[in-house]
Design brief:
Helix content is 40%, strand content 10%. The strands form 2 sheets. It has a 4-stranded parallel β-sheet. Strands 6-5-7-8 form a 4-stranded parallel β-sheet, with helices on both faces. The chain is globular.
Length: 312
């Protein structure tokens, strides 16, 4: 992120310090990081969910719900990812405030939920609508882990800048410039990651839950299955047996656990297989929230994949 602070500082020359910035809340670390980069020195978005907490299973305190009601802008991924927020967003607790769902942003690439081939639980028993429609009652209608494609993160930043500019026209130029600086930094990060992962692109691996297809497709990686499904439901004994078979049939080199979930399932499926255990973190459990967190999250994913798949 060595280029980003200078670019943001230049952009903020147009910021009006006399006007209070909008009060902003972001649901998860990647969204907070993108919003922080776009806001620059005009303000700091509040983080709702720490990275150590699963976005699929999080519950909220009364004080968090009150804060949502007081915010001017609430940025979420949406489409059922933050399942409890989907229930709160239209409730009286937040005065019917409509949250800004960044999965609806112009330019976002949305991928269907994967099924079959050790992606869905218990042989794909669960019925999903793969259409391009909104989630209802927490049911996912496409893979919501959109931020793991760096191109989507750039589109999210543009959408954040547009929303902030509507709420705070005096600082619109700064928001737009900051979004442009963020995009340039993400392009540099993506180029470095592509080079880093090139030697391991063809090496098969399995993940804890099916959260990584955006990253896999962007960088041409060989993910072959997941222990849990896209919504991170607890795997059954049947599912664990299926994954053990998949490790053998696909010659998977690594199985990755996540810090947001118990790692026992990974230990169970790799026992006696020769597959290595790695750690992938799609949310940034140990990252300091702020503009540098999102690019670091991408770099951490790349390093974890390279290290495990290459045996280093």
């Amino acid at each position: 992120m060595r280029h980003l602070p200078a670019l943001i500082a230049a952009a903020l020359l147009t910021t009006s310090p006399a006007l209070a910035a909008p009060k902003v809340i972001a649901s998860v670390v990647p969204v907070q990081s993108i919003a922080a980069a776009v806001m620059g020195g005009t303000g700091t978005p509040e983080l709702l969910l720490q990275g150590s907490m699963s976005e699929h299973r999080a519950v909220f305190t009364p004080s968090q719900i009150a804060a949502l009601g007081d915010a001017d802008l609430v940025f979420i991924v949406g489409q059922g990812l933050e399942a409890k927020l989907a229930q709160i967003s239209g409730s009286d607790a937040v005065n019917g405030k409509r949250f800004i769902e960044l999965s609806d942003a112009p330019g976002i690439i949305r991928l269907p939920i994967r099924a079959g081939g050790a992606w869905e639980p218990d042989g794909g028993d669960h019925d999903h609508d793969h259409g391009d429609t909104h989630a209802a009652e927490g049911v996912l209608t496409f893979d919501p882990h959109i931020w793991l494609d760096p191109e989507n993160a750039k589109a999210m930043a543009r959408a954040v800048a547009d929303a902030l500019s509507r709420a705070d026209p005096a600082n619109a130029a700064a928001y737009g410039a900051n979004a442009g600086a963020f995009a340039a930094e993400i392009d540099r990060t993506s180029a470095a990651i592509a080079a880093e992962l090139a030697p391991v692109k063809s090496k098969p691996f399995i993940v804890f839950h099916d959260a990584y297809q955006y990253f896999e497709k962007r960088f041409g990686l060989a993910g072959v299955g997941s222990i849990s499904d896209v919504s991170a439901q607890a795997p059954s004994a049947r599912r664990l047996a299926e994954v053990r078979d998949k490790i053998a049939s696909a010659h998977a080199i690594c199985v990755f656990r996540e810090p947001q979930f118990d790692g026992k399932a990974v230990q169970t499926v790799i026992e006696g297989t020769g597959a290595r255990e790695g750690v992938l973190d799609p949310l940034g459990a140990n990252l300091i929230p702020g503009p540098e967190a999102y690019p670091q999250l991408l770099r951490n994913l790349a390093k974890a994949l390279k290290d495990c798949l290459s045996g280093s």
